Amino acid sequence: MRTPRDVARSVRLLARRRPRSAERYLEDHEAEWSSLAEASPEDAADILEAIDEDLAGKLIAELEPEQAADLLEELREDLAADLLGELPTFEAARVLDEMSPEAAADLLGVLEDEEEVQQLLDSMDEESAGEVRDLLTHDPESAGGLMTTDVAALPIGLTVGEAMARIRSLHEEYADLSYVYVVDDDGHLKGVLSFRDLVFRRPGDGLDEAMVPDPIAVSTTTDREEVAELVQRYHLFGLPVVDADRRLLGMVTTEAVLDAVQEEASEDFAVAVGTTGEDSVHLPIRRSIRHRLPWIAFDVAISATVVWTISLFDGVLTAFVVLAALMPLVARIGGDAGGRRWRWCSAGSSPTASRGATSVGSWRARSRSGSSTASSSGSSPAPSASASRRCAPGPIRCGSAPRCSSPHGRTSSSPGSRARRSR
Fold this sequence. Notes:
Low-confidence stretches: 349-380, 385-423
Strand content: 5-15%
Oligomer: single chain
Distance between the termini: 32 Å
Largest sheet: 4 strands, mixed
Strand order of the largest sheet: 1-2-3-4
Order of helices and strands: HHHHHHHHHHHHEHEEHHEEHEEHHHHHH
CATH architecture of the domain at 153-259 and 359-411: Roll
Shape: globular
């Protein structure tokens, strides 16, 4: 007997190859949809992206708010926003309440109707709405726009034994407790802890002895490219986000950085080849044609202009046939030069552009390894500003990068959390 997860995978493959057949299956087996979405929201999201949007909205409406929230977080933002808009305001608000604050903010940021956004925020739980409103004030391409506010923090006055007991109680509230930040009574960031540091310490030791003090942090206005550089340079699972007074506001996870880098790279590449970011080999033919037709038409028009221009020099080409033989070479050189120029322009001054695709793969591996890697390794959670000062004189300001790598940075990691996938 097949499990719901097996059914989800089978329907996902069917939806990619024959969307109409998948739609008929889902209509005939409505009772299976809820268990399918609960068992594998990732596969369920792929199914919804492949089938008709009206049916997708109907299927979302049949789910419990928690299930619908998990599924929407896996969808493309534009489709998720459209499906959320088809729900009644009260039900949509319940779904947003179940989502992580950063995912809800990303989703509401896609909606163009400000009045609709305000209605949804007013209908949400007061605490959740407040967190989402705060996130919406930040630039989506900054650390503030990428961060999550679901961050575990402990007061610095605790002992190691008390901290272990507190972490056990936080386990149900936070999905990832690979590392916990240490703050003072006013919320100022003082350090970061790993489980290894706690396990091998005596219960009576203070947190100020076990923590890595003064970790590298970024501000809410730090550009995501700089965040990506720090994450990659120090092999981190996340970066704390602080305000001007170094109060802990949230954390940018590696997965959020990876999603942002992949989204930007996908959009740039899609524009270069004349399509859109949502285009894929699984997209229905008609939609794919609509996406590619404008660029193809433009390309045909430019090519026709070139042909007409060359025809004006028919006499010259007749007299000097060798010029015709050189035309493909000139076209090839021009294409290569244009491709290189596009790459330079799209990469700009990005610190990650010169690191290559290997870095993205390593981020993905570290992001998936999550808490198991952090808890079992002997690494420090993050490079401290004090360690960086030993190799680069001068203070490390919020959002600035150290001038050389500290020993902590080469083996460090910090927590990651789930963020939406960009398809």
